[in-house]
């Protein structure tokens, strides 16, 4: 009879696999790829190693086709779950996602495209979306969680919105062409007035289709205003930058697109109550004002009599003002006549001619005297100038000695025997040669 505590090999491996999978769950592992194999099944098998250990890895076809390219020797970060391949009892890592380690190729490509498209102005869109839109074109996967979240929020908040789903794959090779075609279809239609591009969260590889530069340009050139809601709050793609408006999640996008009908209903009810209260208050105020005006109301004849009396007073004041204005004008006219008689132009001309004749006589007398004074002053200045002129010193027998550079020699120490000097006299120059220097 078999021992009940004895396990078969398959039982042992199965229990070990379950313990590993439950104990670790999803984890991230970093290392270098080696021994990469890609059989016809589409699965990928390789070894992840560092300088002290290694672990076998399996990336199945459903995930491999969405992963970024990698090769032997690449340093990568893997997300996966620890497991055991039961038929052989091999300890392995079932890979869910592959990322270049650190600032790897995908992140570098993302940053490069981001800077390039930003410099080209592809991220300059900022058109407001209609609020709320009448007919929304929803571009996303028909089977993903994003479409369910968006439609549920829109239906709860604003049932009047018409939504047309343009289904597309949101990852893989077919995703980018399908997204671009859907944008073109929406723009050719005359029915839509807004466009929402969305999908749920995922790894960098899962979201990579939304980092395609052709998709970003298609969003930038869209006739319709575009809202992008790709991934979770921490996920950012080039499609988000190119869109007119970005939302952190699909549900948040739906909340931004339309108002909440329940909140509007509450505000409408509150406004109606406020309007009823304001209307009642206004009617009470107007009734009180009517009573006050009725008490102040007088017969029109009294008002007309007061107006006639006021008109008579104004007429009398106007006559007095006009008479006084005429008296003032006549007085001013007489003053002007007297002033003009004192300033007769003919008399002014005669007086000016007399002043001119007297000035001409004074000029004829003063000019010769001024010329004689200036000649005397010029002669005195010339005598003073000759007294301090270097040429006058040379006339007394002195000379100015200069070296070959034109510098004036003041001391014997400034020369050397054999040096040729030039001596300037009152008349002419001499060329000298130094034979010997003396201190005195």
Report on the architecture of this protein.
This protein has 440 residues and is α/β, with parallel strands linked by helices. The protein is built from 12 helices and 13 strands. It folds into 6 domains: 9-101, OB fold (Dihydrolipoamide Acetyltransferase, E2P), CATH 2.40.50; 107-259, 3-Layer(aba) Sandwich (Rossmann fold); 265-293; 308-340; 344-388; 394-433, no CATH class. It has a 5-stranded mixed beta barrel. It has a 5-stranded parallel β-sheet with strand order 7-6-8-9-10, sandwiched between helices. Helix 4 (145-157) packs parallel to helix 8 (250-257) and helix 5 packs parallel to helix 6 (213-220). The longest helix has 44 residues, at 345-388. The mean pLDDT is 85. It is an enzyme of class 3 (hydrolase). This is Exodeoxyribonuclease 7 large subunit. Bidirectionally degrades single-stranded DNA into large acid-insoluble oligonucleotides, which are then degraded further into small acid-soluble oligonucleotides. It is found in: Cytoplasm.
Give the SSE layout.
Blueprint lengths: L8 H16 L1 E12 L6 E6 L4 E6 L1 H4 L10 E11 L4 E11 L4 H16 L14 E6 L4 H13 L4 E6 L7 H14 L5 E6 L13 H8 L5 E5 L7 H5 L2 E2 L3 H8 L3 H36 L3 H43 L2 H44 L1 H6 L4 E3 L17 E5 L4 E5 L7
Parallel strand pairs: 3-5, 6-7, 6-8, 8-9, 9-10
Antiparallel strand pairs: 1-2, 1-4, 2-3, 4-5, 11-12, 12-13
Catalytic activity: Exonucleolytic cleavage in either 5'- to 3'- or 3'- to 5'-direction to yield nucleoside 5'-phosphates
Subcellular location: Cytoplasm
Pfam families: Exonuc_VII_L (PF02601), tRNA_anti_2 (PF13742)
